[in-house]
């Protein structure tokens, strides 16, 4: 009884300790530096775009972050610029439609992404050259800029598009008119990051792209939201998911039904049973490993001789050559040749495996005749 | 610590009390699920799916309310306190349902594992009634067993969810050796020996001491007619003589390692036990004194010699729980002990494994000393596996090797036996089903010859 109480106490203490440990570890872990995703406008990390955002905050009349779905964008307010820096996911069709109608209302979207393929019906072509940084870029007026390009694709031009920037490999930025507004696409989001914005002519290139007078500049953070990546419900058809759910529930119930013990615990009986031939098996394995064919054969011959004495009164002390003569009178089926080979084998120093098995069979035939008549 | 947790987990999840879904529930749920999946094809909303599941599970749980509460169920068990090994016995379980609801039940009795039986037992019981269920069981291993628990699952008549309870019902069962051979001997010794033995062994009449006077029947020796009684009673009477009674018989039962070897039915110790009990019965019926020693590493049980049929019960109660010991048997110790406790000349019957006995070289010395005072006889069970291995066809190296090893053992046993028999120590090996007969025959032969 006292033992049980002490064990209960230890359980309580252990749980307490565990709780303390968990709390401590929670506080310790929460001191870890905050992680920022790339291209987010409030990220001060080298990959963020906070530098540009803060700069524009001072310069522009109205600047804001937009973290709501695109269908809530104010369509009447013309002259808005929505800056999308490297979206984390390709928006769904209705979202894409909402963006398009936003532009059709007379607003502009600036899309900066390494590969704009699939966004707003854009097409791209891969380039042969390795995307390894510095190159010279020309604008439509023929001015030259230095910039770092990490994209491995170039944008494909369509008839009505206005090319804004290009280099020797192809088009880097273009403007597409959509309704009353337009879409500006460039494949170099790296220009805007905190780390590179002041390098080379990146800042200038950015202003080149967004020339004009904007009522409001919006930085789209909706496309950086983690919750908007395609979820499991959008990836798989509903019926498959329902099958999964029902299978999960059914399996749980089935395990419950199967797993509950009904009756006493049973231990297999094999663990307590022993057999009488353990000794013989061990000895046989030992002889076999040592290739003691000669000894083994001698035992078999000895056994037959004892039988010969018991059943046919052939004296035990007579050796096999004498036994052969006596056996002839008994008219056994084992031929004289076989008996001779047995005799020879008994005399030899070493026996091969084949001889051993062969002569053992002959001896067994003789034994059977003697023993069973 | 972890053991405690494991116990808790085991208790909560898998053992003893609890509720669980039935097969019926699973089937209905499966059908429902298929319907839901079908609906999902036509674009039913997730809400419907969730509500459907939750509603179904909740309404099915209502079924639990329709089955009896645990406290209204009471169960008792009646089982024999003593069971003979290998015999069928009936166990009765009284099931009482005091609740307002009828129920279906399944039941597993927590009898020991070595007991053979068919579980679970299924049935149905109405509200406020009692019923008795009985099942047959057969115990295959001797010993003392506690039987503590009865596991019951019951559900409402609809049967979607089952409740499981464990009822503590303490019983204790003694499984004693199979006494059928002993009983057969006691019923009709002559027929028993004639039926089983190769030779008919009669208890020799007409020699030895005078026992009684009875009517003369044709075939009796006319020289034995008691003329005085004949004259007195006006009927021909004759004297009857029988071998002397009141001899001492000591039975030694080895329960060392090698006695645990499995035979066709049971193991060597079981057979030795049954045979020795038959000899005990035979000797006690004859009016001899019988003592029993069970030994392995040391002396396990000693029953001092006594006569009368009460002694059979005494011996039975002393040896029924003997188990095979994992250690090698110590013959020297038992011989020493025997010399100490058995001063009178007696017939010593040793039930053991002959091979182990022959390997123990110190025994010969003790036996020589014992033989001066007692008559020694050893009986073992023939090793059928060994003999069949010695005769198998040497088709490959492995079999040839096994065969030669078996032959070596057979030869060894044969030679050693010859050596010991030349010293006047008799030992025989009997087939497992003939062991009791051989032992009793030997006992009768010794008595008839008046060797002790």
TrEMBL record, chain A:
InterPro entries: DUF4350 (IPR025646). The chain crosses the membrane at residues 12-29, 239-257. Keywords: Membrane, Transmembrane, Transmembrane helix. Residues 41-210 form the DUF4350 domain. It holds the Pfam family DUF4350. This is DUF4350 domain-containing protein. It comes from Oceanobacillus limi.
Automatic annotation (TrEMBL), chain B:
Coiled coil: none annotated. Keywords: Membrane, Transmembrane, Transmembrane helix. It comes from the Bacteria. The chain crosses the membrane at residues 25-42. Pfam families: DUF58 (PF01882). SUPFAM superfamilies: vWA-like (SSF53300). SMART domains: VWA. Residues 246-412 form the VWFA domain. The keyword Nucleotide-binding does not apply. The keyword Transmembrane helix applies. This is Uncharacterized conserved protein, DUF58 family, contains vWF domain. It comes from Oceanobacillus limi.
């Amino acid at each position: 009884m006292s033992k049980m109480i002490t064990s209960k106490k230890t359980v309580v203490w252990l749980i307490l300790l565990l709780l303390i440990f968990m709390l401590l570890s929670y506080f310790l872990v929460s001191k870890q530096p905050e992680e920022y995703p790339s291209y987010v406008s409030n990220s001060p990390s080298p990959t963020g775009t906070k530098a540009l955002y803060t700069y524009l905050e001072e310069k522009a009349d109205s600047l804001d972050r937009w973290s709501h779905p695109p269908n809530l964008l104010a369509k009447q307010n013309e002259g808005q610029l929505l800056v999308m820096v490297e979206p984390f996911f390709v928006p769904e069709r209705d979202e894409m439609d909402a963006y398009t109608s936003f532009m059709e209302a007379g607003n502009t979207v600036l899309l900066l992404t390494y590969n704009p393929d699939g966004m707003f019906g854009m097409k791209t072509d891969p380039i042969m050259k390795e995307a390894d940084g510095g190159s010279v870029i020309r604008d439509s007026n023929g001015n030259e800029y230095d910039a770092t390009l990490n994209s491995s694709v170039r944008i494909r031009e369509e008839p009505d598009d206005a090319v804004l920037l290009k280099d020797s490999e192809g088009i880097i930025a273009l403007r597409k008119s959509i309704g009353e507004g337009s879409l500006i696409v460039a494949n170099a989001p790296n220009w805007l990051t905190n780390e590179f914005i002041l390098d080379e002519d990146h800042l200038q290139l950015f202003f080149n792209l967004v020339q004009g007078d904007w009522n409001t500049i919006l930085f789209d953070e909706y496309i950086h939201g983690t919750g908007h990546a395609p979820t499991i419900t959008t990836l798989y058809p509903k019926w498959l998911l329902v099958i999964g759910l029902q299978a999960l529930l059914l399996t749980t119930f089935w395990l419950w039904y199967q797993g509950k013990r009904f009756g006493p615990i049973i231990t297999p009986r094999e663990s307590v049973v022993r057999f009488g031939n353990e000794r013989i098996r061990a000895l046989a394995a030992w002889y076999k490993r040592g290739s003691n064919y000669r000894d083994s054969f001698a035992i078999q011959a000895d056994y037959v001789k004892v039988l010969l004495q018991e059943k046919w009164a052939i004296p035990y002390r007579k050796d096999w050559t004498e036994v052969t003569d006596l056996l002839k009178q008994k008219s056994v089926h084992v031929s004289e040749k076989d008996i001779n080979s047995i005799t020879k084998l008994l005399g030899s120093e070493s026996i091969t495996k084949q001889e051993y098995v062969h002569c053992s069979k002959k001896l067994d035939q003789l034994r059977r005749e003697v023993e069973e008549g | 610590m972890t053991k405690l947790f494991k116990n808790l987990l085991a208790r909560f999840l898998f053992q003893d009390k609890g509720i669980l879904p039935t097969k019926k529930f699973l089937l209905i749920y499966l059908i429902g699920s298929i319907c839901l999946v079908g609906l999902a094809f036509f674009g039913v909303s997730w809400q419907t799916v969730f509500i459907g599941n939750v509603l179904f599970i909740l309404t099915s749980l209502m079924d639990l309310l329709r089955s009896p509460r645990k406290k209204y169920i009471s169960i008792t068990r009646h089982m024999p306190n003593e069971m003979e090994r290998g015999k069928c016995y009936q166990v009765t379980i009284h099931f009482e349902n005091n609740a307002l609801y009828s129920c279906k039940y399944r039941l597993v009795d927590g009898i020991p594992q070595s007991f053979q039986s068919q579980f679970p037992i299924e049935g149905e019981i109405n509200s406020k009634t009692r019923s008795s269920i009985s099942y047959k069981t057969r115990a295959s291993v001797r010993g003392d067993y506690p039987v503590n628990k009865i596991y019951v699952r019951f559900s409402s008549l609809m049967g979607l969810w089952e409740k499981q309870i464990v009822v503590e019902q303490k019983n204790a069962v003694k499984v004693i050796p199979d006494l059928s051979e002993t009983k057969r001997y006691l019923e009709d010794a002559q027929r028993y020996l004639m039926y089983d033995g190769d030779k008919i062994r009669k208890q020799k009449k007409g020699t030895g001491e005078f026992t009684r006077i009875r009517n003369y029947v044709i075939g009796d020796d006319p020289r034995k007619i008691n003329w005085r009684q004949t004259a007195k009673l006006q009927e021909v009477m004759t004297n009857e003589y029988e071998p002397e009674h009141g001899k001492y018989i000591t039975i030694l039962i080895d329960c060392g390692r090698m006695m645990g070897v499995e035979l066709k039915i049971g193991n060597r110790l079981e057979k030795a036990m049954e045979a020795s009990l038959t000899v005990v019965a035979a000797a006690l019926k004859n009016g001899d004194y019988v003592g029993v020693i069970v030994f392995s590493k040391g002396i396990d049980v000693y029953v001092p010699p006594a006569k009368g049929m009460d002694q059979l019960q005494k011996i039975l109660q002393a040896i029924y729980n003997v188990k095979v010991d994992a250690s090698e048997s110590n013959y020297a110790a038992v011989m020493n002990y025997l010399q100490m406790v058995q001063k009178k000349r007696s017939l010593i019957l040793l039930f053991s494994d002959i091979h182990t006995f022959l390997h123990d070289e110190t025994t010969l010395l003790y036996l020589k000393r014992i033989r001066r005072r007692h008559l020694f006889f050893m009986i073992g069970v023939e090793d059928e596996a060994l003999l069949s291995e010695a005769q198998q066809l040497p088709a490959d190296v492995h079999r040839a090797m096994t065969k030669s090893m078996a032959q070596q053992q057979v030869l060894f046993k044969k030679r050693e036996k010859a050596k010991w028999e030349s010293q006047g120590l008799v030992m025989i090996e009997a087939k497992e089903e003939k062991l009791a007969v051989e032992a009793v025959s030997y006992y009768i032969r010794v008595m008839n010859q008046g060797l002790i």
